[in-house]
Amino acid sequence: MSWISGIGDKRSFTGGVILLIYSVGLVLYALENYQLGTPSYMGPGMFPALVGSVLSLLAIFVIFNAVGSRGTDFHIEWRSLLAVLGSVGAFALLIEPFGLIPSIVVMTAISSFAAERLGLRATALLAVAIAVLTVGIFHYGLKLRFEIIAWPF
Amino acid sequence: MTDLFGNVLLGLSTALTLTNLTFCLIGVFLGTLLGMIPGIGTLVAVSLLFPMTYHMDATSALVMLAGIYYGTAYGGSIASILLNLPGTPANAVACLDGYPMSNNGRAGVALFMSAAGSFVGGSFGILLMMLFSPVIAENALRFGAAEFFSLMLMGFVVASTMSEGSTVKGLASVVLGVSFGLVGTDLNSGIWRFGFGVLDLMDGISLVALAMGLFGVTEIVFAASAKDSGKTVQDVSLRSMIPTRDDIRRSWGPMARGSGIGAFFGTLPGTGGLIASFVAYAVEKRVAKEPERFGKGAIEGVVAPETANNAADQAAFIPTMTLGIPGSATMAIMLGVLMINGITPGPLLIKEQPDLFWGLVMSFWVGNIMLLVLNIPLIGLWVRILKIPSNLLYPAVLVFVCIGVFSVNYSPTDIWLVLVFAVLGYVLRMLDFPVAPLILGFVLGPMLEENFRRALLLSNGNPMTFFDRPISGTIMVISAALLVWSIWSALRRRRPQQQAAA
Asked: Are strands B184-185 and B192-193 parallel, antiparallel or unpaired?
């Protein structure tokens, strides 16, 4: 991949390429599936096709710009990223079958890895505190119809 | 004049109901609380608490969100002054002189004067809103589809030129947002577009999930990975907050100039509190008799930017409410709240729902008074909250995000959408694209399409309609000029750099 080293701003370049693929896909999908119509009586496909075309032009601009300019590198904080995203995913999976309290406990446990580590005891106390607080606010306070605890089996 | 008086009374009768007062108080309190947490700015706070408003009526929802909106601005200044960590970007300038004041043992005075400045700035913005909104709305009644289309385009261009980074990337972010707005049922033909068989996407992508993923969750990833500063927070007593005669004498000028600067930038689309606070600080330094005092704890350097960012926050409501065109991502969320409740902001709003409009304006005032009353006696509580380690806060905020989003439709799909947009938000930021313009495009996208189609229907498909009509044509020329200017100045800035590199 030596040609990439000639590009100054790799972050913008990558972004431009992703946008270009997305926008071309958008135009093709709109043309394939929806009617264009005429300018005075537009069909459902006209505006999406136009939006996709404008976006692809912008993406080409971004790509050209990126080749000539200099950029900075980045690094990804994998631990924080995965802990936060993982805890949200866990909530999506658990909330319906198991209810509120188990979801909160699992979420707190996973997301506690995001920042500097808490001890096991502190995490457990935090989970209890958050669970009490949220059940109090959302179930008893706002009277939302959450399943507090459930067992699917 | 009697008109205005009647409107004020009407507004007060809405704002002073017990329900709205309570929501205003809750909003201001939560806003201050979230604003203090570094990494959680206005946009994040408003998106975090947005789901709660689904369970309220439109006026109360907006009153609470507005309370959160200016509560965060104030909470942010507490963190700036006491910790040297801006709670929100718009408070960054307040660190320059606020933290030195705190080191000189004058944190109390800085906090008091920043609250007073916020109140003055906010009040000035509200006054402008009361005086000019009816006039602007009256004139905007003559706008047709073509005018609204070009106004929205101008909003996009200004938001992209003003956001950090390159204009082209800002525009790309806006258009990406517009493309997300396409999902859902097409109003003209009834055809379900870009649904990919997911039934929950029939009504379009949920604004809550989008805002929460792009701002809430992504921001937490960044904030959690930052190292805890480990700074100690000093205690602030009520007595130490009393300003000296000299402090008050020095603050009148900055408050007046800050109000004007803030209101000006607030009404421009795409700018807002951040730019206003920087300009206000620069102006104070320029007009000061002893500019060398700045950066070492000059009271003017705290008062001016804090006044300006509150004035800007208030003034930003003017275009949102009178034209239905939000100038910033936060305002776009406010607009979203109204539309979810079946209210379309625009020139007709003031005429058709005067109780909502004037109630909102008056509750801004009530909220600003509450901010003042709440924050001065509660300062001890805020200081104690600042001492909570941040790794205890993030899991709690995440749980609230998920429960909030889930409570809107009781559908796990919305949580998965949060996850998708969190990943997108992270990728965009890693690739150096601004994220805030995206939400502007998303909210305005459907309106943009509707007005585009209607304008062309009326002109028999002739696209010159956007340029032939005088008002629309003028707006188009201004937008084009702005675009050319910003691209040209970016190119000019790049050239010397390249020569230096060669």
From this structure: antiparallel
